[in-house]
Amino acid sequence: MAVAAARVASSDFDPFSSETRRNPYAAYERLRAAGPVVRLTRYDIWAVPGFAEVKSVLEDHANFSSAGGAGLANYFKQKPWRPPSIILEADPPLHTRTRAVLARVLSPGVMRRLADEFKARAVTLIDPLVEAGSFDAIRDIAEVFPISVFPDALGIDQEGRENFLTYGAMVFAGFGPENDYFRELMAKAATVLPWVAAKCQRQALRPGSFGAQIYQAVDAGEISEEEGALLVRSLLSAGLDTTISAIGMSLYSLARAPAQWAVLAGNPTLARSAFDETLRYDSAAPFVFRTTPHETVIAGVPIDGHEKILLLVASANRDATRWERADELDITRRVSGHVGFGVGIHGCVGQMVARLEAEAVLSALAARVSRIEITGDVAYRESTGLRALSCLPLRVIPK
Ligand code: OVM
């Protein structure tokens, strides 16, 4: 082991720093060049930066567990900050049972029924902004649209929805180190967590909603009442800050590529594949962790048991061995096969909802706007688990 370890690359790369959030791609390229598995000395974890290895680890849930936590914390050794997710932070057989419920609730047929509603609401949001001519794409679009449509689909009332922004920030701070950012958010836990828990209860959810359908699975005996509440919590944890951040990053990528915006404005039906290409090109969800339940290997490198493995999906999506012109945004490329939503048994169960939301927003804008210009400074949020903007000032030129 000692001999093998000596031959393995190491790096002081910090996946959680503000420098990395501003521009991770040069560091990712160095990591891919360093080797298939790189020891990150700051955190004593393994990083996997290449497409083939990221994909194969994600497809091997027996050797790379999710029950050990999907963030930096090692649940095989440390107490989780909240009761673990019974889908994200679970292995089969528990995961198989809970995933089946959410896969049914978020099935393609359900999505088809939501599409018209989402598109109409995006037009209602976007048209006045286009009239105004300039706006902040984060404050006025990304932070508004998912918070309006997704809790509605879940069956949750309007009261206190600003708490979802705080809760989302907490969940994704929970993916990173226990730093000041994490502690500042956790100071709000005593008020926000009980509020979220109340919104997850059966009686809080409108009949016919996603939430109510989860409780139908309780009534059918597939899951317990407590598991029902935890699966509603999963939708709230995974379904808001991710789509908020992804819509923001998508608009940012497109605003930086005027020729690509022109292609989209010329054919707004490209909105869905344009969104996927922006996920590949510059993702709001740049990584996920696995934990080894026992000794294993990655690309021939021996890995001990109970090790944290950082899977750099945003790096995999720029790997030149998988993608032609990997560093170019091209909304007409064949982007299927990117790992921005993960892959394997934990591949994003809500990816159809995310695509529907983003498609609604991008196509509403593309229908009205021929050009987009960034008019001021752009800033990243401090989030450690997501890469997201806090502001994106835009001017739009109507068709
Ligand atoms: C969950 C959960 C939380 C955050 C993210 C996620 C990306 C899932 O609570 O199940 O999936």
The arrangement of helices and strands along the chain is: HEHHEEHHHEHHHHHHHHHHEEEEHHEEEE
How many DSSP helices? 18
Residues in β-strands, percent: 5-15%
SS elements, strand count: 12
Hetero groups in this structure are: 3-methoxybenzoic acid
Describe what you observe in this structure.
This protein has one domain: Cytochrome P450 (Cytochrome p450, Orthogonal Bundle). Helix content is 48%, strand content 11%. It is built from 18 helices and twelve strands. It has helices at 2-7, 18-22, 25-34, 51-58, 94-105, 108-132, 137-142, 145-154, 162-173, 180-186, 189-199, 210-219, 225-238, 241-255, 258-266, 271-281, 313-316, 351-368; strands at 9-11, 38-40, 45-48, 134-136, 288-291, 296-298, 301-303, 308-311, 369-374, 379-380, 389-391, 393-398. The strands form four sheets. Strands 1-2-3-8-5 form a five-stranded mixed β-sheet, sandwiched between helices. Helix 6 runs parallel beside helix 18 (351-368), helix 14 (241-255) packs across helix 16 (271-281) and helix 15 (258-266) packs across helix 18 (351-368). It is globular, with a radius of gyration of 21 Å. Residues 85, 87-88, 171, 233-234, 237-238 line the site of 3-methoxybenzoic acid.
What is this entry, summarized?
This protein is an alpha+beta fold and 399 residues long.
